[in-house]
Amino acid sequence: MRDFANKVAAITGAGSGMGRALAVQLAQAGCHVSLADKNGVGLAETERIVRAIAPNVRVSTRVLDVGERDAMFAWADDTAKEHGKVNLIFNNAGVALSSTIEGMEYSDLEWIVNINFWGVVHGTKAFLPHLKASGDGHVINTSSLFGIFAQPGMSGYNATKFAVRGFTESLRQELDMMKCGVSATCVHPGGIRTNIAQASRVSKNMVGFMVASEQQGRDTFEKFFITTADDAARTILAGVRKNKRRVLIGRDAKAGDWMARVLPAAYQALVVLATRREAARARREAARGTPAPAPLHAATYNNAGNQGGEQS
Fold first, then answer.
1. Is 301 a catalytic residue?
2. CB 18 within 8 A of CB 195
3. Phi then psi for 8, rounded to 5 degrees?
4. Which domains can be identified in the chain, with CATH numbers?
């Protein structure tokens, strides 16, 4: 899909961050947009911005939870009815969780799986028939650097993002076999400057293990966010135009991908050594009252929009 003019795109997590940036850039390209987010306030602000910069573009909005299957299917059907077609679905909404496996609450694991994985599944399955009917469709699912590269303390997040990667790669292969006019791309952002760190869940079991305090962890995570949401959106849309199977966003994502490919087993030992050193330094600096860099593992590299105000 080389041209977005007069196409129709649906975007989850559109209330802020990458979702908002995608909505703005697509609208500037003449693409009509259907925007969804659980945060109604952020969603309304995105709608206002889009209408101001692209008054001739149709904009519809829906406040919903991507983990609710019926709501997602209803939104997909309503989008097709209101706009006449749907060409693109950006399954962008996501949340972050930092916890040890031993201390992780099942409720937290279910929460992140429901949004990060099932939200992508629901969005893909709900919109796919409409994309096929359009004759020119594309599914864009947001995984993460942590869908390629595992880190301690991020097992729940890693699991969902690895799952999105496998799901999307399989989907792309099926669509290629079908030759149905629809394609798929898996997006792997590194650290994106959004509010996902402040809105993430940091379990108490991380305190003393990886971070000095829950808030210290959130505050220092953000120091690793090196790519703006606008730059990330531009990279994603360029990848869609080129029909790429995988889009890596940021130097950190490219470095992590390289390490996982070149040192698929050995990188894990290197991560443990680096994380131990940085975690110890964070605790020492916190004890002295001086902010310290967070352990590399802790940066919640992602996408996302504002699913319930709990992520970027």
1. no
2. no
3. -125, 125
4. 8-205+226-259+302-307 (3.40.50.720)
